[in-house]
Design brief:
This protein is of the alpha+beta class and 622 residues long. It folds into four domains: 170 residues, no CATH class; 78 residues, Muramoyl-pentapeptide Carboxypeptidase, domain 1, CATH 1.10.101; 189 residues, Beta Barrel (L,D-transpeptidase catalytic domain-like), CATH 2.40.440; 57 residues, no CATH class. The chain has 23 helices and 16 strands. The strands form three sheets. Strands 2-3-4-13-11-10-5-14 form an eight-stranded mixed barrel. The termini are far apart.
């Protein structure tokens, strides 16, 4: 074989082998294209999820790891109910069904993380613990199947504990108001024994159930929607605005006005579009208008004058505004006002009574409420309790928070002077002017027998030992005015007219002895008697000496007067019984959203915000 033949033979053989090899590779490639890729394992397959092991670990965690499951505010009764719930289910999970089935778990974690928008504290629900348990179950490849299922069980139970407590806080509030306002809080709250703690876990759709409690009613939702706005304000510089050295008025100039303009702009009262705020040194009409609106929405006298109280409110920080909002959200959670009923709401810090028809606010009237307690009240009360000497008993004239129903309107009421007012006022007025009892038309009684006021000399007695009782006769200048609105309550307070008109022009109208004085009592009477079959506003006016122009109505009233009043014609006082009692709430809110969608803020006149902030663990206070 020649070299050429050998060469050809070699390459011929090589070519054959090459072609054969290429064919084989082609076959393999085609085969790879037609073979499906290797299937990825699910987490349940990868980590060997076992329902029986999971249930065993849930049972063990409840029995052995309770401290890791329940957060601090879970009561013994709540803990036992949650354990009983899982026991009746044979420890089958509810929220975290396996390593793969985590959709519900993730949604619930998001809800807990958003608790801060309600003024609640996410850390109360052990978010970090829950996330650490789930991380241990999902990220650590070196642990045993048993340990992985244990971490999953701890995550399930911790979330169940957190969610049930979160919903409880949403439904009823974080604290019971009667625990901090025991002596002057008489609005019904849900009895802890009647609270269905496990209701979220027992509901058909837990996410819908939580959402219903997160979005409660219009007043709650509207106020909560303000939270992001004030959160965003926290990113702004908030320089303190100094007081003016003199009273400022429109047209005046000062270097502080740019700061006021900027603050009013930040708070959405002053549009600075096209305006150089730093050149706003003149107190012009636009700035006056903006400041006046600001004063209205802070309950100040809306005079457009940047005095001390106005500057103080301008210096309130976003954190302090947020705290007021959170406190009102907590108070809203204590009390649910029906959306369909007619009711009255007296808001003490607002010094207003609001009239509602079918859940809609239809009118408002200025009121005066009780005086604030002395700053020495606590010390004085302790001294009184120790000595039991009545002269050391401190006066408490703060208007209480209560729920009741107005049942009667009394026309031309008499007024029996309470012992506290005898000690604190009547006695001193008499010492200054011994004709006081006659001038104010008081009847004087001793042992229930009427005595001549001219024969009484109160100077013979100590103020705490006056033996007489005093009843002021019906009269336009009677302390109760012409109308008195009656509702049952343990505090002996009521709503009434008053001859003392100047305080209705004050910003702070906490001037009474506890009762609620109404600026426009006839407007309130009209609301209460609008559906009465016998009495109406005109009849009330005629009976109380207010002129009614329509002579036919006057004639009609006097024809029916005897039947309407059902008392002797010489008797001045008339009681009108309402055919349907009207619910009354006297409550305490220092922030809310009004009917125009504007957030309102008020001073904490009785320092109840301060007490509530402390109870809730807030650090900021105003």
């Amino acid at each position: 074989m020649t070299i050429l033949r050998q060469y050809r033979s070699f390459f011929g053989g090589f070519a054959g082998i090459f072609l054969l090899t290429l064919s084989a590779l082609s076959f393999l490639l085609v085969s790879c294209e037609n073979t499906p890729p290797e299937r990825l394992l699910t987490r349940d397959e990868k980590w060997g999820f076992d329902q029986d092991i999971f249930r065993i670990q849930i049972e063990a965690a409840l029995q052995q790891s309770a401290g890791e499951v329940f957060h601090d505010s879970v009561t013994v009764a709540e803990r036992e109910s949650l354990m009983a719930f899982y026991r009746t289910r044979n420890f089958t999970p509810v929220l975290l069904l396996s390593f793969d089935d985590t959709a519900l778990f993730n949604s619930l974690i998001t809800s807990l993380q958003n608790a801060g928008s309600h003024g609640l504290k996410p850390e109360e629900y052990k978010i970090k613990n829950i996330l650490s348990y789930i991380a241990a179950a999902f990220t650590n490849d070196s642990i045993s199947a048993e340990q992985r299922h244990k971490s999953l069980a701890l995550a399930e139970l911790s979330l169940a504990s957190g969610v049930t407590k979160y919903v409880s806080h949403l439904k009823y509030g974080r604290i019971n108001p009667k625990s901090i306002f025991a002596s002057d809080y008489a609005i019904p709250v849900a009895d802890s024994a009647n609270r269905v703690y496990l209701e979220p876990l027992q509901s058909e759709n837990i996410l819908e159930y939580i959402e219903q409690n997160e979005f409660r009613d219009e007043r709650y939702n509207n106020l909560r929607m303000a939270v992001p706005y004030y959160e965003e304000l926290k990113t702004h510089k908030w320089k303190k605005i100094p007081y003016f050295s003199k009273k400022m008025k429109a047209g005046d100039s000062d270097t502080h006005f740019p700061m006021i303009a900027e603050r009013l702009n930040q708070l959405d009262f002053f549009d600075t579009t096209g305006i150089d705020i730093h050149s706003q040194v003149i107190y012009d009409s636009n700035l006056v208008k903006a400041l006046t609106q600001f004063q209205e929405e802070r309950g100040l006298v809306a005079d457009g004058i940047p005095g001390k109280s106005t500057i103080d409110w301008l210096n309130v920080t976003p954190d302090e505004y947020l705290q007021k909002i959170y406190l009102s959200l907590e108070r809203y959670r204590w009390t649910t006002y029906t959306d369909s009923a007619d009711y009255l709401l007296v808001n003490i810090p607002a010094f207003m009574v609001y009239m509602y028809k079918e859940g809609m606010m239809t009118g408002e009237i200025k009121v005066c409420t009780g005086k604030k307690r002395s700053k020495y009240y606590t010390d004085q009360l302790a001294r009184f309790k120790k000595t039991r000497n009545i002269k050391y008993r401190p006066e408490d004239w703060e208007t209480p928070q209560l729920y009741s129903e107005i049942s009667h309107v009394i026309l031309n009421p008499t007024w029996t002077v309470p012992p506290s007012i005898i000690r604190e006022e009547l006695y001193n007025e008499y010492r200054k002017d011994t004709t006081y009892l006659l001038r104010k038309k008081f009847k004087v009684y001793l042992d229930n027998k009427e005595v001549n006021p001219e024969e009484v000399d109160l100077r013979n007695y100590a103020p705490e030992n006056v033996p007489y009782s005093f009843v002021q006769s019906p009269d336009p200048y009677n302390a109760l005015g012409r109308l008195k609105f009656i509702f049952q309550n343990k505090f002996g307070v009521y709503l009434h007219d008053t001859p003392t008109r100047p305080p209705f022009g004050y910003a702070n109208r906490a001037v009474s002895h506890g009762c609620v004085r109404v600026e426009k009592p006839y407007l309130l009477a009209e609301y209460l008697l609008r559906n009465h079959q016998q009495w109406n506003l005109d009849y009330v006016k005629i009976e109380t000496g207010v002129k009614v122009a329509d002579k036919e109505i006057v004639k009609e009233y006097y024809q029916n007067r005897k039947q309407l009043r059902q008392v002797n014609k010489e008797e001045k006082t008339t009681t009108v019984k309402l055919e349907k009692k009207i619910a009354l709430f006297i409550d305490y809110y220092t922030s809310w959203v009004n009917e125009k969608g504007r957030v309102q803020f008020r001073d904490d006149i009785y320092e109840k915000d301060k007490l509530l902030s402390t109870a809730l663990g807030y650090s900021t206070g105003i």
